[in-house]
Amino acid sequence: MKNWAMFVAVLILLAVPALAQDTGVTFEPRLENSGLLHIVHEGVTVVSIDLRDGSVVYGEDYAADAAALLFWEAVGRLFPMTPDPTCAELDD
Predict the structure, then answer these.
(1) Per-domain boundaries in the chain
(2) Inter-residue contact 24 to 42 (CB < 8 Å)
């Protein structure tokens, strides 16, 4: 499940590169390590994805938890969560 969530998040960021850049996140495929996709924030790799086996490594100069948080916050900014006005919980 975790790998699928990462895969979907990466597809979302790749599909809307202009919005992704607004969050400060960019993508850098590295040719010297074929099959690796690096997600970069302000010049520092925060997530490395091995496209051959789907493995994910968070962090380079960031701690792994901070890198994961930064990545998922960037994804969240692309799709802000707003309450559904038709939701029954809002009808108090």
Answers:
(1) 21-79
(2) yes
